[in-house]
Amino acid sequence: MKKYTYTEKKDTRSGFGAGLHEAGKRNENVVALCADLVGSLKMDAFIKDFPERFIQVGIAEANMMGIAAGLTIGGKIPFTGTFANFSTGRVYDQIRQSIAYSGKNVKICASHAGLTLGEDGATHQILEDIGMMKMLPGMVVINPCDYNQTKAATLAILEHEGPVYLRFGRPTVPVFTPEDQKFEIGKAWMVNEGTDVTIVATGHMVWRAIEAGEKLAEMGIDAEIINIHTIKPLDEEAILKSVKKTGCIVTCEEHNKLGGLGESVAHLLTTTYLAPQEFVAVNDSFGESGTPDQLMTKYKLDPSDIVAAVQKAISRKTK
Amino acid sequence: MKHTISELENIASQVRRDVLRMVHAVQSGHPGGSLGCADFFTALYFEILNHKPEFNMDGIGEDLFFLSNGHISPVWYSVLARSGYFEVSELATFRKINSRLQGHPTTHEGLPGIRIASGSLGQGTSVAIGAALAKKLNHDKSLVYVLTGDGELQEGQNWEAFMFAPHHEVDNLILTVDYNGQQIDGPTEKILSLKSLQNKFEAFGWQVISCDGNNMEEVLKAMHYAKSLTGKGKPIVNLMSTQMGYGVDFMQGSNKWHGAAPNDEQLANALTQLKETLGDY
After folding, report:
1. Which domains does chain A have, with CATH numbers?
2. CA distance B198 to B210
3. Is there a domain that residue B280 lies in?
4. Does the structure show a pLDDT above 70 at A319?
5. For residue A74, what is the nearest residue in chain B, using CA coordinates?
């Protein structure tokens, strides 16, 4: 097992804030919009340096999505910022008609996704957003795993023409990907090569998959770990190549098992190459209040849950 | 004036014929609001807008128009074709398979003149505000126009947009409300009353004007006046009274024709009431 270490923990939303600031420097067409959550989205640096390119919309997310769509007409590249729940479910029809169907170059940037939002509870902990967004034709869906990758992803989507959903979170998590990484939309990142099982993970679950991989190595199981930061378009080639080698797969995500990364992988496997798959994901339920760690444990998203899923997947391989 | 009032009235008559024939051909679509707004669309595209029919999505240096109540697509398609965005013969493909003239307007099939999809109501004003802000950022002095229905104002997103525009001094925006008092299920007054739109808009900080939308001279006067009010710190709204189905006696003023197509006999009757001025497609 390749050794991964980290010297600090940072929140992925701060990676977005840093990326947005840099995007603003690189391209004068970048415009940021926020629905009364500037501090939560870490937009302060952008606002300080580019006040004329920042639009405070107030608590009116539907209007924000429409304004963002309109800004693209005239060549602007709008980045909207609010919580993942208010970036998707609350404004699904606005995104569907005014952004996705209209083919507008809007970057929907969504913080506080998943359970790790913590104490605010289920009203704010969206676990269905990946599903909603990936169902929209033409929408790119990205869920990076740490500060550096989120910053790199924010800059990568600036260069992509078309609507993007960028999902990140609130808690601090280990920073373990390189600062100078090249982020390629739709290209999986090989975390660790192995032979016994494929683990694909997205977002906050990538570090947990690495922790699980270390435990599995102690047990004599050689896990291949792949970071799927782009759920759509999915890197089918990387996943298939790995599964053909290992013969089974475990998918890990801080999302409902319905509609998420696991479901996209299942679709790929059933239509191309059958192999046992286990899901480490929220089991079709809402979240609740608690600390992020308590919630990840209660909803079975811990490294130990990944280990158990790996054992089950391996046991289901055709002998 | 590029055209005389009577020339514009003649164009509007042809547009109404187009609307009826398009809707009749596929026995679906929305003739009521389309007929009511034929004078407005004609005035806009033949007199008011500084626009470029060769069409560029970004519309730099030209006025932009957005239709929020997308179901009145027939009148928009007719006026776009008649003002040179595409061949009038293409009107015959309205609502048919593989057409660029979808039931509701869309950018998806690449029809020149359309900059956003609409149909799901209440979204157009937000989009127009975004386009108006882009113009300001681009130091582009041209204007942004948007049309909404009145029943459509029951959608909450409108009021988010109406609150936003005065706060941010979006004064390069002219909103027109097709104030016909009708919606699918009946008169707006009965379904969900709008009460005083004038008071509501004024309280939100808009510059409010009004006109009779089925009187070409009044429409032109109101829209020229609206233009003169731009750049003064406030968005402008024109409460434009129209009659649904205007121009055809048995359709006029009734919500029955919101989304119903005329049969052969009704079409023949209607067409006798509307002069063919530019040649049917």
Report:
1. 9-174 (3.40.50.970), 189-315 (3.40.50.920)
2. 9
3. no
4. no
5. B58
In terms of Cα–Cα distance, which of B237, B256, B239, B238 is closest to B248? B256
Provide the shortest C-alpha distance from residue A137 to chain B (in Å).
11
What does pLDDT average to over chain A? 98
Peptide bond into A292 cis (omega under 30): no
Put simply, whether A71 touches B (Cβ < 8 Å) is: yes
Is 70 exceeded by the pLDDT of residue A198?
yes
Q: B1 pLDDT band (50/70/90 cuts)?
A: confident
Closest Cα in chain A, distance from residue B237 (Å) = 18
Please report residues of B whose CB lies closer than 8 A to that of A70: 66, 116, 126-134
CATH number of the domain to which B85 belongs? 3.40.50.970
Give strand pairing partners of A34: A56, A81
Q: Which chain B residues are closer than 8 Å to A71 by Cβ?
A: 130-131, 133-134
Q: Is A31 on the interface with B (CB under 8 A)?
A: yes
Interatomic CA distance for residues A27 and A48, integer angstroms:
16
What domain range is B24 assigned to? Answer: 5-272
**d(CA B78, nearest CA chain A) in Å:** 21
Interface test with A, best of B57, B65, B126 (most A CBs within 10 A): B126
Q: How many domains would you assign to chain B? A: 1
Nearest to B51 by CA among B80, B9, B13: B80
Three-state DSSP state, A315: helix
How close is the nearest chain B Cα to the Cα of A218, in Å? 54
- B277 domain-assigned: no
Helix boundaries (H) for chain B: 5-26, 31-36, 38-43, 73-82, 124-137, 156-167, 188-191, 197-204, 216-228, 264-272
β partners of residue A174: A9
Contacts of A58 in chain B (CB under 8 A): 160, 163-164, 167
Taking the model in full, what pTM does it have? 0.97
Q: What is the mean pLDDT of residues B249-264?
A: 94
